[in-house]
Amino acid sequence: MARVLTPRAEDFPRWYQDLIAKAKLADNGPVRGTMVIRPAGYAIWERMQSEMDDRIKAAGAENAYFPLFIPESYLKREAEHVEGFSPELAVVTHGGGKQLAEPVVVRPTSETVIGEFMAKWIDSYRDLPLLLNQWANVVRWELRPRIFLRTSEFLWQEGHTAHATRADARAYARRILHEAYEDLMVNVLGIPVVVGLKTARERFAGATATYTCEGMMGDGKALQLGTSHELGQNFARAFDISYSSAEGGREHAWTTSWGTSTRMLGGLIMCHGDDNGLRVPPRLAPIQAYVMVVKDGEGVGAAAAELRDALRDAGVRVALDDRTDTPFGRRAVDAELRGYPVRVEVGPRDLATGNAVVVRRTDGSKAPTPVADVVGAVRAALEADQRALHDQALAHRQSRTVEVATLDEAIEAAATGWARVPWSAVGVDGEAKANGQGVTVRCLLRADGSVPDTEDESDLVAILARAY
């Protein structure tokens, strides 16, 4: 396999690019910073999307769709918001062969346009909470693109809600953070995320609080996998999102926004991938079991098709590879690269003894298994390997995280992993110093690991790391 992928220990960024190309997950688009997501990559994104959509709907939000083009004037209404996004904006000045009366922005995020319609749709406290989500593409002009991690156009979901009180808004932002984002990342993607509060310096432009899910990648760097924001009344005032209260007064709503994107695909690759390719957690995998005909003849093809059908009937997502005109070794390498959790190899020699070979991608083990027991063996392997991938990632994070007492120690530790340091030893000035050396405060935690309300709480712990 070393001939297929650059070893991770030798050159992690090159390994990442090799894997994306060789596993046929994505390609660079024709415009710098854009990407083409190939069917193998998009199938994983569809599974992420489906799992996330179920969780968002369980939290009460409904899907809608808002325009790709946003009047430039909308962004200017919330000064901090436009200032934060200004360097990344793509602006359209001409359409239909004519100069536009007002330039339009290709959406970088939709707080402003959704705020405009929230103001239109909300009149009374009876209209609250208004819980919206959209699946869309967004454009943020990226100077240093990297497929899935930072691209000028990417796919995501963005939720936007309006509430009657600050407490309701905070509770909902945190509900999404834990019940949708953390739950998906830990229990489906198998990525053990640290959930915390962003500092004011790292906060979303226009927000009053930003909560984040941070994962450690295979090289010890951090990746922000999803964020949920309290927007206070900033956008409500800018767009007059107001309502008549039960007492008869007129009040501004409290709003939130939250999003995850195709960046999760990059996180999946870098968290679980190895020198043989991608390893997809079974609960996420579009193909959980890959039945392969080693060599045709002697009833092998029929036996493989029967195993496929039995696995499908047992609720396993399964595919059959009977392309015997392609060498088996090449097909096996491709299956390793794609990260199919389990392969079931059916050949004449094993079938003659009543067996098939069950191969587990997570540990590479191969077990001759009676054909009648294959379904049970596959289901047991899928459940065990879901846990194994999470536990391996957690052990990796713990081994690369150190407790330190000073900012300088934290910056030094961030060269190889994460540092936990008292926030009081860092502070605003220390954060600026760390940023100057390529290290960021990923999030703040309470001593017990819970998420703080503000960075002014006492005895907070800061997580410092280099990040993508």
UniProtKB/TrEMBL annotation:
EC number of the protein: 6.1.1.15
Gene Ontology cellular component terms for the protein in this record: aminoacyl-tRNA synthetase multienzyme complex; cytoplasm
Subcellular location(s) per record: Cytoplasm
Key word Nucleotide-binding present: yes
Gene Ontology MF term list: ATP binding; proline-tRNA ligase activity
GO biological process: prolyl-tRNA aminoacylation
The protein's enzyme class: ligase
Catalytic activity field: tRNA(Pro) + L-proline + ATP = L-prolyl-tRNA(Pro) + AMP + diphosphate
Location of the Aminoacyl-transfer RNA synthetases class-II family profile domain: 32-281
Gene3D superfamilies assigned to the protein according to its UniProt record, in alphabetical order: Anticodon-binding domain, Bira Bifunctional Protein, Domain 2
Keywords attached to this entry: Aminoacyl-tRNA synthetase, ATP-binding, Cytoplasm, Ligase, Nucleotide-binding, Protein biosynthesis
Role this protein plays: Catalyzes the attachment of proline to tRNA(Pro) in a two-step reaction: proline is first activated by ATP to form Pro-AMP and then transferred to the acceptor end of tRNA(Pro).
UniProt record similarity statement: Belongs to the class-II aminoacyl-tRNA synthetase family. ProS type 3 subfamily.
HAMAP family for this protein: Pro_tRNA_synth_type3
Name of the molecule in the record: Proline--tRNA ligase
Gene: proS
